[in-house]
C-alpha cells in the first residue's frame, strides 16, 4: 500500500509516517516509480508506534521496543532491550516529576507569601534601581 492509503487507514498523516521511517520505526520498499510501498503489517506497526508514543516513549526508545512488541496495544515481551529502555525512560520521568514538584512547591510558597503580605503598598520600581539578585 502507498503512503496515502496507510495514512487513511491509520489516521496518521503522511509527514509523520515519513518521520517514523526516517527514525527506523517503519519500513517501506520503493516501487519502480519511486513511491513508498508498505507491507501488510504496516498498519499494525503504526498503531504500535502510536500507542508507545502515547506512553511517553521517545522514537529512540520505541526503536528498541518494537522487536518485543506483539499485537496492536502492544503487549511487550520481556526482551532485555525492552526492559533497559523502559527502566531508563521511567528514571527520566521520575527526574522530571521531581523537578516539577520542586517548582510547584516554590511557586506555592511565593503565592502564600504574597497572600500573607496582602495589598501592602510598595514603592514603584525605578528603571535605574538595581534588580535584586
Please give a structural write-up:
With 133 residues, this protein is mainly alpha-helical. The protein has helices at 3-10, 14-22, 42-54, 59-65, 80-117; strands spanning 29-30, 36-37, 69-70, 75-76. The protein has 5 helices and 4 strands, in the order H-H-E-E-H-H-E-E-H. The protein is elongated and about 75 Å long. The model has no long low-confidence stretch (mean pLDDT 87). A two-stranded antiparallel ribbon has the order 1-2. The chain has a two-stranded antiparallel ribbon with strand order 3-4. Helix 4 packs antiparallel against helix 5. The chain has a single domain (3-117), classed as Multidrug-efflux Transporter Regulator, Chain: A, Domain 2 (Orthogonal Bundle), CATH 1.10.1660.10.
Tally of DSSP β-strands: 4
- Beta-strand proportion: 5-15%
Distance between the termini: 61 Å
Rg on CA atoms, Å: 24 Å
What is the total number of structural domains?
1
Oligomer: single chain
Backbone shape: elongated
Might you state the CATH topology name?
A: Multidrug-efflux Transporter Regulator, Chain: A, Domain 2
Derived from helix and strand composition plus strand pairing, the structural class reads mainly alpha
* Unreliable sequence segments: none
CATH architectural label: Orthogonal Bundle
**Whole-number mean pLDDT:** 87
The level-1 CATH class: Mainly Alpha
**How would you sum up the major sheet?**
2 strands, antiparallel
Helix-strand pattern: HHEEHHEEH
The strands making up the biggest β-sheet line up spatially as 1-2
Number of helices: 5
Protein name: MerR family transcriptional regulator
Domain HTH merR-type: 1-68
Organism: Streptomyces purpurascens
Keywords: DNA-binding
Amino acid at each position: 500500500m502507498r503512503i496515502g492509503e496507510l495514512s487513511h487507514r491509520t489516521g496518521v498523516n503522511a509527514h509523520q509516517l515519513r518521520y517514523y521511517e526516517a527514525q527506523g520505526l517503519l519500513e517501506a520498499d520503493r516501487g519502480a516509480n519511486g513511491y513508498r510501498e508498505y507491507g501488510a503489517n504496516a498498519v499494525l506497526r503504526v498503531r504500535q508506534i502510536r500507542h508507545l508514543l502515547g506512553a511517553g516513549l521517545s522514537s529512540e526508545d520505541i526503536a528498541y521496543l518494537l522487536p518485543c512488541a506483539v499485537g496492536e496495544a502492544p503487549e511487550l515481551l520481556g526482551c532485555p532491550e525492552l526492559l533497559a529502555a523502559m527502566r531508563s525512560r521511567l528514571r527520566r520521568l521520575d527526574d522530571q516529576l521531581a523537578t516539577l514538584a520542586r517548582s510547584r512547591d516554590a511557586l506555592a510558597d511565593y503565592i502564600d507569601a504574597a497572600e500573607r503580605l496582602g495589598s501592602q503598598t510598595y514603592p514603584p520600581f525605578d528603571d535605574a534601581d538595581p534588580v535584586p539578585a
